[in-house]
């Protein structure tokens, strides 16, 4: 397969460039759907059936499997959307400098979409039927929490033995074997407005109350146990000389194990059930939106298989944990052996310095194709 893939590198880079040069931020439906149509056409040409799950406000999701597939045991997850707003491509389109390619979404994860496509092409060229043992989901809202695609992923993943998730590899090439879970919460505080110079005693400061809550919430962090609570955004008040009548805080929580979720949620609710500033009112909304991806026995077995594959083809396999979220959490929580970070190597995702290591493109495509082959055929 390596010889075939080496002949395809130019075509892979050409397709990556085409995809990168299309704005496809999560809320830019037209761009995301354009990416989806390009890939849909490519897969249809290879004999795959593509089911399009339509959305009104965000891009459509794609469920892809070969027309002759019966009960695939492998699910592959990747996403079509990026974090970048419409117009970003005009500011900094795809470019190559040395061994690196740059552009919005080049590593997270447009190059991964191309890796999946060409891994399948390599299997077909090899005459290996492993491509009939996979089901692929390209969702359109991973970067905003997979709110409309989570149920689709969980439904399609049921009954699968393995989940291969195409988030980019770490900068050193490591795969991801565990991720922390994520929750989003919002605290809203209602106070009473008053002129801060003329009659401050008549006011009840929502900002002061929120300040008490922020301190208490941050004290819930236990970094040694993998728990972090961060109030990342606040807003409130109407003017500097007015006692604030409202304040809002947006909170990000991370957990290493699912059993940490309930006790943490209880403590957050307790903090928000009372007030420190008399006359204010506090309300809380939110939930865990991604369970943690825990490194369990099934994951260890799959990781060992991938290590054997890597040794066979000359790709060193290391694994790591990360605090960032991905759709790997959903399959892992279902008890499916899950490995993430199977995309090519790169870095600085979500920034204007995002890059792809071009030299990793063929080795990571070969790795994915050979993993599919091994999991499907036992060799």
TrEMBL record:
<keyword id="KW-0479">Metal-binding</keyword>
<protein>
    <submittedName>
        <fullName>M20/M25/M40 family metallo-hydrolase</fullName>
    </submittedName>
</protein>
<dbReference type="InterPro" id="IPR011650">
    <property type="entry name" value="Peptidase_M20_dimer"/>
</dbReference>
<dbReference type="Pfam" id="PF01546">
    <property type="entry name" value="Peptidase_M20"/>
</dbReference>
<feature type="active site" description="Proton acceptor">
    <location>
        <position position="142"/>
    </location>
</feature>
<dbReference type="InterPro" id="IPR050072">
    <property type="entry name" value="Peptidase_M20A"/>
</dbReference>
<dbReference type="Pfam" id="PF07687">
    <property type="entry name" value="M20_dimer"/>
</dbReference>
<dbReference type="GO" id="GO:0046872">
    <property type="term" value="F:metal ion binding"/>
</dbReference>
<dbReference type="GO" id="GO:0016787">
    <property type="term" value="F:hydrolase activity"/>
</dbReference>
<keyword id="KW-0378">Hydrolase</keyword>
<dbReference type="InterPro" id="IPR002933">
    <property type="entry name" value="Peptidase_M20"/>
</dbReference>
<feature type="active site">
    <location>
        <position position="81"/>
    </location>
</feature>
<dbReference type="InterPro" id="IPR036264">
    <property type="entry name" value="Bact_exopeptidase_dim_dom"/>
</dbReference>
<feature type="domain" description="Peptidase M20 dimerisation">
    <location>
        <begin position="178"/>
        <end position="277"/>
    </location>
</feature>
<dbReference type="InterPro" id="IPR017150">
    <property type="entry name" value="Pept_M20_glutamate_carboxypep"/>
</dbReference>
